[in-house]
Model the fold of this input.
Amino acid sequence: MPGFDPARITIPCAHFLHGRQVRGGAGLAVTRPADGQVYAELPVADDACVDEAVASARQAFFHADWARRAPRERARLMRRWADLTEADIDYLAALEALGSTRPIDQARAWDVPYTAEGIRFFAEFADKHGGEVAATAHNRLGMQIAEPLGVVGAIAPWNFPLSMTCWKVAPALAAGNTVVLKPSEMTPFTAVRLAELAIEAGIPPGVFNVIQGDGATTGDALCRHPDVAKITFTGSTVTGRHIMGACAETGPKPVTLELGGKSPQVVFGDIPDIERTAATLAGAITGNAGQVCVAGSRLLIERSLLEPMIKRLNAHFEMLEPGLTWASGSRFSPIISETQANRIESVVARALEAGAELIEGGSRFETSLGGCFYRPTILRVDNSDNPAVKEEIFGPVLSVQAFDDEEEALALAEHEVYGLAAGVHTADIGRALRAVRRLSAGTVWVNRYGRSNDYILPTGGYKRSGIGRDLGRAAFEANLHHKSVLIDLDT
Ligand code: NAD
Done:
């Protein structure tokens, strides 16, 4: 698969309202992560623009009949939208690779097809859940009718721009809501293209709107808007707290919050195939250069395996080289921004000061590419108070702690703040299931690490990793409320 020339890609540098691109004034410079070049000026939606977007979504909800349309018709339009998304792979994958940390080969092999499949997955729910009939006295009929909420405000992060858009928008639309999405100001453009494709598929104007801007201006105004019925958010725990506050002050309105993580990978000495586990562990911390909410960033390993596993991890890490995200063959992602690279450096420096031992990496790659690339890094740590263990780094930095028995392993796995995901690697099914019961995490993977591509299992956090669930039936249901109806039959 050849790479592409960034100069030839048209940038949809606009909001998307009333079914068309709406260009605003200059606002924020948008930078390509791989080479650090500014390639667009992003309009920033102010209160008036947010108001217009919400009015567009409200109009579509009440008057364009999206909510009242036959559910199968909604499903049919969404399936067409998924087909058009897949057919647009050349442009969508290039736009994603240009402006985000996603290498072009991965954007083509995963991000675009996974997004299309997500739209299909949620479309299938549209006509599968109408409500329930209650067990009332025989002379009455009691029902719970499932209804859409209205205008859903969606706020997305930068790490997987296309698929995060799909996670937020597809279940909301399938349930009959209309949406105003604010993508991250660092990766704002593929959402606009997805919204255009929705129009081409026949989804009415105003059903899916995109507003551009930063969190403090545009995101906050969206959360506080009185006509927004719900906010669904993915991003950091700190921002999630702000959003919940804004929704409480101006509602209260319901929230789904998918937040940060610091996920453990617990490896016991009985694993049958150390090479296979090493490949899993390496992928879980270097995929998207560790800029993944469920990155397996804390390795807890039985002492007997410590040295052999570190040797194998190093071998995997050494194969990764920086590359432009638009060059064919690039596998290793840049760090999203200079600010984020500085943050990684700061946590690593504090970790070393606090006694961590640097085993591998610990610095940026020296390259002439222009973007920031951070070396896959291993920090050996003995103390769980070390910043490398406590803080979400959002980079390719793995802390490693050794344990001597199961009890110690599971105690170390517990994190005081985060509970997003965990991995357990063992040949002993009883031990695996004890760990599943014990670990405080929204998802536990056994002898694997990472979600399946089928959307079926919900994802979300325990503790301060979040509230509510994305994916699965749960994500669809989170976009509905239920009306109780009781009818006397004897009148
Ligand atoms: P972030 O919290 O900085 O920003 C996320 C979004 O929120 C952006 O669109 C931003 O503009 C907006 N925002 C910022 N301040 C806001 C405010 N006051 N009001 C409204 N909106 C505001 O997060 P990020 O750096 O884009 O993404 C990385 C974080 O996302 C990590 O913590 C990661 O763990 C988390 N994440 C979680 C999941 C999950 O499923 N749990 C998935 C991906 C990323």
Observations:
- The pocket of nicotinamide-adenine-dinucleotide is lined by residues 155-159, 182, 184-185, 214-216, 219-220, 223, 234-236, 239, 242-243, 258-261, 293, 392, 394, 420, 459, 461, 466 (CB under 6 Å).
- Residues 89 and 112 are 6 Å apart (CA to CA).
- The mean pLDDT is 97.
